[in-house]
Amino acid sequence: MPKGEQRTMRDAERTLKHIFGPVPSRRLGFSLGVDLVAPKTCTMDCIYCELGPTTDKTVCRSCPVDVDEVLRELEGVLREHPRVDYVTLSGSGEPTLNSRMDDVIRGIRRITSAPVAVLTNASLMTDPGVCAALDLADVVLPSLDAVSPRAFERVNRPHPSLDPAAIAAAIAEFSRASGAEVWLESVFVSGVNDDDCEVGLLRAAIETIAPERVHVNTVVRPPAVPGTRPVAPEALAAIARKLGPLAEVIATPTASPQRQMNRDTEDVIVAMAARRPITVDDVATALGMSHADAGRTVAQLVEKGVLTLARHDEKLYYTA
After folding, report:
1. What pLDDT is stored for residue 252 in this prediction?
2. pLDDT per residue over 275-301, tens digit each?
3. Which of left, alpha, beta for 191 (phi over 0: left; psi -120 to 50: alpha)?
4. Domain boundaries in the chain?
5. pTM > 0.85
6. What's the topology of domain 39-52+87-95+107-251?
7. Which residues touch 310 (CB under 8 Å, ≥6 apart)?
8. Residues 6+ positions from 15 with CB-CB distance below 8 Å
9. Cα–Cα nearest to 39, from 51, 48, 31
């Protein structure tokens, strides 16, 4: 095997399996990610998803990861980079599909005082066991992109057992009963779920849910379905106004760059790119590098075949 290919394989082997980042998040500052499912395992196949098409669409919970290994990886990363804003359960699919998510959150609590956040599509919040696990988090960030069955099917392409009205009701019940904060997110796709009727239905659901925050978002990174288009900024701002006083359009990350981590920089970049498409700016901000150094490092990884280049809306993104 050529030396270059041997190096590429060694790089892949050293990459953390379950922990990625910290990465700059538009909502959570510097977020250290915890990945609890195999890629890409989800209850939905959203057309805008930056992780690409769902390969295992399921509503059956299981534990495909070694929880002790997850926590060992987390502890090691935090020793090298202790200052994070949140430890966030997200990653390669829907984290609530992991049946031991509650054990992971308890383990995180033993390791760090950083608050725990969970990014979820809310599809399994109709399950009391899932809600009990989510209640252990500090912040739960459920998404609700559509309330009508037609728009729900078009934008989220869900497992056939899922019902948007039941999901909205479950989020509302959790919001009333839980001690965790609820930050609701709605992602709008041009021509799919952005008309006045759908926005009105979402506003009614938001009033029932009564979350602490409402985040209005659109397609930013390369989507699972080519041709999926973002809502224009001025139209997105208008949607936020229609959704009520809690709604705000999510801004780009504003956190300041961090000191470069001791772990091999390339390993960190590959772990980030394995979960979502990244830009050179993402790398520079997350690792405290200059834009030029980040660009050179990313270019080297492309040359080795570790990263792949993609273009979306005139911006360059990199995936593992």
Report:
1. 52
2. 778 777 777 766 666 767 777 777 778
3. left
4. 39-52+87-95+107-251
5. no
6. TIM Barrel (3.20.20)
7. 222, 277, 316, 317, 318, 319
8. 267, 270, 271, 274
9. 51
